[in-house]
Specification:
The protein has 237 residues and is an alpha+beta fold. It has two domains: 5-88, Glutaredoxin, CATH 3.40.30.10; 100-236, Glutathione S-transferase Yfyf (Class Pi), Chain A, domain 2, CATH 1.20.1050. The chain has ten helices and four strands, in the order βαβαββαααααααα. The chain has helices spanning 22-33, 48-55, 78-88, 100-131, 135-149, 153-156, 160-181, 192-207, 209-217, 224-236, and strands at 5-10, 38-43, 66-68, 74-76. A four-stranded mixed beta sheet has the order 2-1-3-4, sandwiched between helices. It binds glutathione. Glutathione (GSH) is lined by residues 10, 21, 23, 45, 48, 63-65, 77-78.
């Protein structure tokens, strides 16, 4: 009998149909790449803690993504989910490549995306993420982000032009890598590094479409990022 995994994911409070979390998308790409069927449990920020702890008794600090396994336990964290899938389905398309060295390099790329691309994207998506919420989730989102950033709401997004400039500077190496492979970061086939990058793009495009257009698709004078984004569509449509 086919196993049905449940993926707990984050959606907007207004329509409950926009899945925007980059960490969740990493898990979704990994599941799709491994051709593993799954159901999603869409949750808003405020629903997430009680829904995950009620369903997965082993989890006491709930975050998304959480993948509920056959035995009912929840597996938290996108990388842990990818490692689990790689181990369980070794004969399906690989996420990390053949050697520990390839896996290490992909982890290194993940750190680059997280530390160099995410800060400016995070500032640019802030207002969009806020406006996508219903009033209770908007209140939670605003106060939790004010607390974590130490800044009042109106200062979190920062200066648009400075954000776009910072992003372009840090996208340069990614653009160069894609120009050289002519395809995915990993070459002919995507893997973890691509799914990390693509997840950041899905997050950016769904919460700040104009800035994504200007800051990624039109940032360089060629079709490298538009072509890459076209390839990503096969997973997200
Ligand atoms: N390290 C985790 C990320 C976990 C995480 O921070 N998830 C966020 C969504 S991207 C979350 O659950 N946020 C809940 C909240 O902000 O209340 C992973 O990559 O899977």
């Amino acid at each position: 009998m086919a196993i049905t995994f449940k993926l707990f994911e984050l959606v907007d409070g207004k329509t409950r149909s926009i899945s925007f979390s980059p960490a969740v998308w990493r898990a979704k790409f990994a599941l799709m790449h491994k051709k593993v069927p799954y159901e999603t449990v869409p949750l808003t920020f405020l629903e997430l803690p009680s829904a995950i702890t009620a369903a997965c008794l082993n989890i006491d600090t709930p975050t998304v993504p959480t993948l509920q396994l056959e035995n009912g336990d929840g597996l938290r964290d996108s990388f842990a989910i990818a490692e689990y899938l790689e181990e369980k389905y070794p004969d399906r398309p690989s996420l990390f490549g053949k050697s520990q060295g390839e896996k290490n390099l992909q982890r290194f790329f993940e750190s680059y995306v997280q530390s160099k691309l995410h800060p400016s994207i995070q500032r640019m998506v802030f207002q969009g993420m806020y406006e996508m919420q219903d009033s209770e989730n908007a209140h939670y989102f605003r106060s939790s982000r004010e607390k974590s950033s130490g800044r009042p709401h109106k200062e979190i997004a920062g200066d648009r032009a400075a954000n776009l400039k910072e992003l372009k500077e840090n996208l340069g190496l990614v653009h160069k890598a894609l120009l050289e492979t002519g395809g995915w970061i990993l070459g002919d086939q995507p893997g973890w590094a691509d799914f990390v990058l693509a997840s950041s793009f899905v997050w950016f495009s769904s919460c700040a479409p104009k800035e994504f257009q200007e800051g990624v698709l039109e940032a360089f004078d060629d079709k490298v990022f538009p072509n890459y984004w076209d390839k990503v569509q096969q997973y997200i449509k």
